[in-house]
């Protein structure tokens, strides 16, 4: 029996209220707007529903996604149970300066909540289009801020131990990485963020200023997955790509942005194959011209 028939039977028996979509196009769940159908896509609405689903899916092929803002999904589809945290988006205040968002809470919403409560230290994340879970996994950062500066504790589901709490050095944060980068079975359920008392209007001003800088530099008018490559030691990927004359270079619907060479954009009807071919061409060209190897930041799903 194919794995998804086992899943359908078990889901009906153990989690009948869970929202499950069949053959759901991943293009609807990634900011690149690319990707064929996920065999099954589930949207748990609470931590309890998510952990029960993870128990059920233990021996079935599955993956967890947030807003899909760092993902490139295969054209031929994803033969997995894709678990989206999009419906788990609560943000609780658990202490005077402590917020506890759930995995699927968008960073923008957390930043606005922090601002409204007069809590500083999260404005940097306002323009990053990810969720709390994806941002913890990637140690997302911008304009001098990084998740590791505010994350104190993380609630994690692990197939062997169930729900555990990690903190401090256990989280192994580094540049765009964390302990979760090499621990693919672990799922982030929530995190505690420690912020500082601040002035609401000053935080509002900082968020507006960073938003302006982002809009002036980044091709936000096109679908993309943000920076395509990691920042190579001692360089900027975008500058190297621009120096190689690749700004505007296009394969099919995928294009090196004219506005910011560090972004590959979906300029219209791009496929996963277009993006991969373009990334390959950029990597080869940059390596031949400069000797620098560009490592993808975008994660591939389904190949
Ligand atoms: C226009 C644009 C601008 C961007 N700017 C920035 C920026 O300034 N700085 C920056 O760091 N990034 C930036 N990004 C990239 C992206 O937003 C971040 O990497 C973000 O943290 C990804 O979050 P997500 O929820 O979308 O994760 P997804 O893309 O859905 O997933 C990313 C990875 O995390 C895993 N994952 C997601 N949720 C969980 C969970 N709950 N538990 C375990 N694993 C999980 C997935 O399996 C996947 O491996 C940008 C992207 C775009 C499109």
General description of the model:
The chain is α+β, with helices and mostly antiparallel strands. It folds into three domains: 3-84, Uridine Diphospho-n-acetylenolpyruvylglucosamine Reductase, domain 2 (2-Layer Sandwich); 91-215, Uridine Diphospho-n-acetylenolpyruvylglucosamine Reductase, domain 3, CATH 3.30.465.10; 219-301, Uridine Diphospho-n-acetylenolpyruvylglucosamine Reductase, domain 1 (Alpha-Beta Complex). It contains seven helices and 19 strands. It has a five-stranded antiparallel β-sheet with strand order 6-7-13-11-12. Strand 9 (141-142) and strand 10 form a beta hairpin. It is globular. The two termini are 22 Å apart. It binds flavin-adenine dinucleotide (FAD).
Quick summary of this structure?
The protein has helices at residues 3-14, 47-57, 107-116, 132-138, 200-217, 237-243, 272-290, and strands at 19-25, 37-43, 62-65, 71-73, 78-84, 91-95, 98-101, 119-120, 141-142, 145-146, 151-158, 162-167, 187-194, 196-197, 224-227, 250-251, 254-256, 263-266, 299-301.
